[in-house]
Write a sequence for this structure.
């Protein structure tokens, strides 16, 4: 029907008929509470006092926007999760099936388009029936029901449940007030506007508020696609959602549906054939799971939880946490995130190869997280557990990939990070280059003893720790992973030392640097403590430069993304846009990208990390089919194992370790269907990283990295030696010797170039 009002009486006429109604009630001596008789009228000596009372009632109500479901979406617009107090998605009337509009009018208020909010004919019929002993009959119009729903659900949305009154709990005053509000609503809104509001506000059983949610939950379709029998079924539910629940009480629901169809036939809304076919149709529900919150997310439930925590922690979305949570649960928000479903699914599938959820008796943790260089976008965040798994599976609320708290002390739900092992070494190497050294400067990696008396330079704090087997407090020299009798204790270039992941090489470079500057380099790439993100990575012990500090996988991936991007740091971001129910854009945090590491330093680090994956490097067993750099990491007793690496387009951190008992070794634990005595960074974390990156990297930039300038690679050649001419020797002879020296230096450069290719 057109959006046109056809009330046959105005407010004055309504009052006159109400007076007549009150008079009938008084004569009969019946208090018809269900029909909204004012108690004051029964005690009054004149009807004037009743009219005065009615006039003094408020006639304004703020309909507002009903509480609506919020949605978290992936970057491609696909649904990740839904949040709601009331499962509702508001839709305009033109997006609701005409069958549904007719069905609800037919069964709930046949004269809806004829009255002005109060159906006096129905009201008087109900009174007459009660006077004659016929029992109570309903007389509420769609408008009155709409008013009632708005009042109840507004109280519920505000948490004022004590103010909600249903049916017989309502006093006479509340019922009269609803009558006057219904009349006022009819004067303010068109019939179609009221019908639209009603269909969007009313409950259709099983937590489905509004016709769009009901259509999807029961039939897997939109409200505009409801057919005749589906519309009649849902129209029948609203009278008593519990009694006519199509899931719990299908027989009652079917009987009620057919009654609605009878009304539609009687009122000329459908013809006999439509009626016959619809009555013969089965209910044929196609139930869809109701997804509320991250535990029932379509995918990436821990990323979902991370996003919801970011939202609730951000004062941009409300003054208090309570306000922000209410907005998330009721505001009809559309939150579009950075997550790439292709990458997320690929990362999640890796878990089945190593630590499957249904066969992980030793509770070995695994996580993969990816960030896009130059944007900070979090592309994937996967782990091998669920928040609400089937019985018998490992359950944890902790997100292995992220910090425990944000910078303001609010929970992010994270594990707080894990000791990173040798994945921290590139940052010492980066400062080595930043301070003026070259990649191919040599370092003495044979030095294994750093006595307690040796001072470590730290201009912004203090750094202690020592390695000295002659000291009874230590009884151990610094050693590399190959053990004390290995072959790797000699002079190397700094680049070779990093590619081989030699502890002695890293310590030899650190011994020539200001530890404070190493810490600053870490901070420039985003490295911080996982437990307290306001604090920089703790370098008070020299062992921290070998990986004894805890960092979250997301932080590690993002720090390596800084190198991949040529030294541009971007804060990791998860939100692309937030839009409210009205379509207004709300602010989202930016990545604030900026150059924090010199491009030539980043290029030098990238060159060294590419060698890690080359033959002879510590990650030689996990190369990619694309240009890539990476660093493996293993803690002393293999409690935590890592591979963090990148292409130009994706930086990924892969971790396998002990998330709950962080000091427990994973050696001998069941991983990939086997138990082996020693696990390092390339064993499982590296294999997962390799398989995942080979699968997904081609979706993003896989071009070659910019080479570092020669000035940051090669040590300068010594100046040529020019001898003074001896008596009787010509100047030309002296020049010739100088040329020979120059040719010799050129030869050295050729050797260095050859080494660069290696």
């Amino acid at each position: 029907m057109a959006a046109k009002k056809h009330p046959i009486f105005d407010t004055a006429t309504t009052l006159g008929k109400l007076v007549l109604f009150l008079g009938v009630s008084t004569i009969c001596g019946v208090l018809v509470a269900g029909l909204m008789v004012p108690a004051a009228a029964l005690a009054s000596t004149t009807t004037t006092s009743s009219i005065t009372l009615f006039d003094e009632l408020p006639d304004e109500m703020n309909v507002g926007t009903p509480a609506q479901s919020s949605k978290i979406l992936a970057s491609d617009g696909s649904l990740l999760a839904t949040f709601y107090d009331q499962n509702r998605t508001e839709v305009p009337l033109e997006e609701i099936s005409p069958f549904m509009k007719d069905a609800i009018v037919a069964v709930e208020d046949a004269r809806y388009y004829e009255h002005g909010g109060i159906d006096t004919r129905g009201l008087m019929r109900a009174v007459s029936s009660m006077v004659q002993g016929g029992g109570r009959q309903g007389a509420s119009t769609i408008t009155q029901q709409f008013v009632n729903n708005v009042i109840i659900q507004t109280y519920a949305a505000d948490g004022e449940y004590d103010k909600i009154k249903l049916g017989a709990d309502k006093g006479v005053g509340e019922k009269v007030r609803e009558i006057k509000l219904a009349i006022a609503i009819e004067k303010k809104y068109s019939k179609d506007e009221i019908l639209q509001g009603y269909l969007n506000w009313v409950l259709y059983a099983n937590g489905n508020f509004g016709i769009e949610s009901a259509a999807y939950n029961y039939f897997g379709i939109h409200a505009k696609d409801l057919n005749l029998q589906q519309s009649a079924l849902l129209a029948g539910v609203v009278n008593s959602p519990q009694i006519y629940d199509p899931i719990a009480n299908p027989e009652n629901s079917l009987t009620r549906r057919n009654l609605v169809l009878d009304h539609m036939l009687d009122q000329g809304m459908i013809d006999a054939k439509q009626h016959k076919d619809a009555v013969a149709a089965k209910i044929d529900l196609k139930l869809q799971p109701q997804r509320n919150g991250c535990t029932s997310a379509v995918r990436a439930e821990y990323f979902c939880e991370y996003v919801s925590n970011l939202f609730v922690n951000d004062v941009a979305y409300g003054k208090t946490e309570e306000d922000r949570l209410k907005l998330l649960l009721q505001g009809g928000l559309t939150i579009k995130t950075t997550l790439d479903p292709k990458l997320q699914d690929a990362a999640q599938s890796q878990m089945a190869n190593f630590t499957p959820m249904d066969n992980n008796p030793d509770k070995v943790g695994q996580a993969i997280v990816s960030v896009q260089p130059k944007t900070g976008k979090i592309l994937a965040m996967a782990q091998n557990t669920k928040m609400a798994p089937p019985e018998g599976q490992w359950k944890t609320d902790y997100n292995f990939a992220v910090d425990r708290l944000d910078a303001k002390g609010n929970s992010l739900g994270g594990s707080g990070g894990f000791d990173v092992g040798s994945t921290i070494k590139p940052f010492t190497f980066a400062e080595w280059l930043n301070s003026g050294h070259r990649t191919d400067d040599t370092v003495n990696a044979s030095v294994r003893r750093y006595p307690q008396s040796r001072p470590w330079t730290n201009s912004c704090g203090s750094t202690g720790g020592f390695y000295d087997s002659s000291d009874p407090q230590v009884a151990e020299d610094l050693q590399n992973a190959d053990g004390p009798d290995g072959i790797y204790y000699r002079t190397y270039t700094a680049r070779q030392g990093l590619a081989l992941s030699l502890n002695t090489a890293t310590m030899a470079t650190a011994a020539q640097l200001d530890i404070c500057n190493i810490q600053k380099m870490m901070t420039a790439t985003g490295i911080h403590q996982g437990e307290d993100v306001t604090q920089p990575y703790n370098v008070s012990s020299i062992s921290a430069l070998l990986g004894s500090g805890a960092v979250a996988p997301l932080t590690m991936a993002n720090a390596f993304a800084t190198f991949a991007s040529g030294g541009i740091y971007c804060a990791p971001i998860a939100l692309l846009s937030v839009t409210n129910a009205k379509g207004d854009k709300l602010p989202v945090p930016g990545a604030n990208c900026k150059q924090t590491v010199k491009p030539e330093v980043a290029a030098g680090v990238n060159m060294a990390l590419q060698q890690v994956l080359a033959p002879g490097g510590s990650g030689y067993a996990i190369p990619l089919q694309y240009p890539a750099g990476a660093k493996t990491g293993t803690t002393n007793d293999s409690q935590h194992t890592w591979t963090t690496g990148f292409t130009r387009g994706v930086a990924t951190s892969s971790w396998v370790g002990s998330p709950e008992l962080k000091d427990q070794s994973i050696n001998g634990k069941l991983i990939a269907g086997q138990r082996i005595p020693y696990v390092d960074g390339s064993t499982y974390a590296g294999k997962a990283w390799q398989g995942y990156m080979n699968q997904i990297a081609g979706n993003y930039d896989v071009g070659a990295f910019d080479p570092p300038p020669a000035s940051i690679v090669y040590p300068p050649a010594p100046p040529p030696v020019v001898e003074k001419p001896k008596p009787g020797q010509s100047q030309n002879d002296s020049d010739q010797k100088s040329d020979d020296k120059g040719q010799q230096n050129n030869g050295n450069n050729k050797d260095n170039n050859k080494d660069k290719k290696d």
